[in-house]
């Protein structure tokens, strides 16, 4: 099958081979391992520069499926020099479905933190995410935000790299999205950012996250209430100045309302928030 991918004079054959490999990669890890062992990744990566956009897109789909199977296969895909092709594709005139595919593949290249993708790969991908985050398509925004949430998960070094791109104001803006598929990962990403250093948390506060949280604490979806409360609990682990920001933005009343009436999973996060608040607050802030 891998040999058919090299048939540059027969793009139809290349497409069918890439399609078959995509289907195999959507199966078990053992089946994906067979693709890797069969040497299919290098020719698939080569097809990302194919002049035939149909072949190129199918090859990308196959690589995205392989990368999504776990960190080992993800790293094999990254080491095949796939990432430099992706900014070129994004900046070219491709269909919206192709752009969805590119964004989804990039998201899969960020998944798994055992281990995280290497710093070089992250640095290569972040400018693309910064560009994609300005799009208006909900599917592109959703996958981009999920990718950023994977990168910022319990890793202050990656949080710093993400913040250096200047995407934080846009992430906070997306917290007002009516699309749950966009709101959920953008909120999770901002919540991850405030697990970082006090300075990183301050950047999120300065970007306006606390202005949006009161509405999210009262969101009709309990999953959003829980994420918003979790983000708030991370802010309350900081210094007195962060706790004062919480008071200034009138976040205590909706928090108490969740303690009284929220679902159990939301109440659990609210209790953590109150515990952090009472532990870190000054006497003046408490009384």
Automatic annotation (TrEMBL):
ARM repeats lie at residues 39-67, 166-208, 208-236. GO terms for biological process: protein transport. The keyword RNA-binding does not apply. Transmembrane segments: none annotated. InterPro entries: ARM-like, ARM-type_fold, Armadillo. Keywords: Protein transport, Transport. Belongs to the importin alpha family. This is Importin subunit alpha-8. It holds the Pfam family Arm.
């Amino acid at each position: 099958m891998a040999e058919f991918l090299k048939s540059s004079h027969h793009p139809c054959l290349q497409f069918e081979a890439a399609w078959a490999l995509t289907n195999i990669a959507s199966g078990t890890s053992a089946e994906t391992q067979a693709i890797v062992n069969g040497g299919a990744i290098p020719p698939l990566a080569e097809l990302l520069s194919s002049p035939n956009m149909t072949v190129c897109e199918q090859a990308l789909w196959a690589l995205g499926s392989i990368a999504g199977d776990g960190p080992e296969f993800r790293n094999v895909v990254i080491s095949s020099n796939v990432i430099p092709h992706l900014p070129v594709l994004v900046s070219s005139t491709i269909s919206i479905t192709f752009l969805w595919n590119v964004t989804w593949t990039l998201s899969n290249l960020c998944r798994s933190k055992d281990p995280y993708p290497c710093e070089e790969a992250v640095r290569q991908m972040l400018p693309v995410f910064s560009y994609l985050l300005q799009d208006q398509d909900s599917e592109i925004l959703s996958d981009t935000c999920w990718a950023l949430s994977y990168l910022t998960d319990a890793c202050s070094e990656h949080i710093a790299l993400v913040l250096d791109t200047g995407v934080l104001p846009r992430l906070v803006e997306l917290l007002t999205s009516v699309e749950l598929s966009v709101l959920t990962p953008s909120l999770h990403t901002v919540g991850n950012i405030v697990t970082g250093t006090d300075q990183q948390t301050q950047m999120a506060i300065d970007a306006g996250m606390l202005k949006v949280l009161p509405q999210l604490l009262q969101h009709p979806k309990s999953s959003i209430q829980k994420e918003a409360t979790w983000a708030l609990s991370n802010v309350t682990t900081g210094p007195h100045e962060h706790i004062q920001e919480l008071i200034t933005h009138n976040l205590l009343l909706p928090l108490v309302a969740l303690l009284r009436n929220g679902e159990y999973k939301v109440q659990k996060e609210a209790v953590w928030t109150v515990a952090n608040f009472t532990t870190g607050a000054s006497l003046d802030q408490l009384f």
